[in-house]
Amino acid sequence: MSQPARVIWDDALISYDFGPDHPLAPVRVELTMALARELGVLDKVEVAPCAPATDDELAMVHDPGYIEAVKRVSATGRPDLSAGLGTSDNPAFAGVHEASALIAGASLAAARAVWEGTAGHAVNVAGGLHHAMAATASGFCVYNDPALAIAWLLRQGAGRVAYVDVDVHHGDGVQALFYDDPRVLTISLHESPRTLFPGTGFPGETGADGTAVNVALPAGCGDTGWLRAFDSVVPPLLREFRPDVLVTQHGCDSHALDPLAHLMLSVDGQRTAYAYLHRLAHETAGGRWIATGGGGYELVQVVPRVWTHLIAEVAGHPIDPATPTSEAWRRLVRERTGELPPLTMTDGRTPEFQDLSGGYDPADPIDRAIMATRNAVFPLHGLDPMP
């Protein structure tokens, strides 16, 4: 009998709050959990608490001096620009260490549950802070919880861990922390660094033996092109790498409505990708799957619906896209944001994969992006880059 899925949650996770004018508003996570609860998704999983990551746990990927700097900012609320705290992206606030350590602890709890076998899959929708570096905050991220989960798994004896990042921004922090470690395969599908922060994630960034993989997609790429890129790169590499555990980051800022980026995916395209990753976890990693949230700045129309679909997929009980949102949730949206809530769990799209079996078009910028990645890394894995 398969192990139950687990959602790691504590109401204090919404204390990761850079202020009322910051794009990373914690209401997006609050509304996600409320929608998942209203639709009965949380009835199909174990909801488990978490503890903050300890200093020793944080030091698996972060410099001790940086942890101490974050704690000083946390105690005083005063900026420390040497630690990256006090910028417009990463404002300093009192309690920042405690809030960040709790998110890190939630992803560690997810990793522990999956590795020890008390859960088959686990998800921390408050996590996915993939830009944080060893010694500095970056891109709204203070502690790098996906990297901590990976580092913890390696310490427990995992021989290979694969990380797939579908955020619109390059997963630069996770890549940097494991760039020279052939035990960790990092795959990031993101908008081209020519047009979007953080300016990294080119196909030529290949890491140790091709274990850093970057698919840099052109602005304007929608469901069909994005899913074509995913299908052309991710499954072959995961099948070849055969990880012990699959860790995934699910930033939903690739949606067409997201205000900070320029891809054009729908809720339906993102949901389709989550289902594919679920299948790949079973096919390539023995079903061991740890999922996190990530970016996403359309706080009402996108994030709650997409991540409720993610939780439902992790639970093994996907939601019919035509499902209406509940009236109680719509009232909550109006009370918390003053915005009009979406009425159903779909954008009305039916995304389909169009793979490379019929060849590729060198005049198509998406196909050029796909082939740049395949040419850069497939030979390093013994794979033929040609379709």
From TrEMBL:
InterPro entries: AcuC (IPR003085), HDACs (IPR000286), His_deacetylse_dom (IPR023801), His_deacetylse_dom_sf (IPR037138), Ureohydrolase_dom_sf (IPR023696). Pathway: Ketone degradation; acetoin degradation. Residues 22-313 form the Histone deacetylase domain. Keywords: Acetoin catabolism. It comes from the Bacteria. CDD domains: HDAC_AcuC_like. Pfam families: Hist_deacetyl. Belongs to the histone deacetylase family. This is Acetoin utilization protein AcuC.
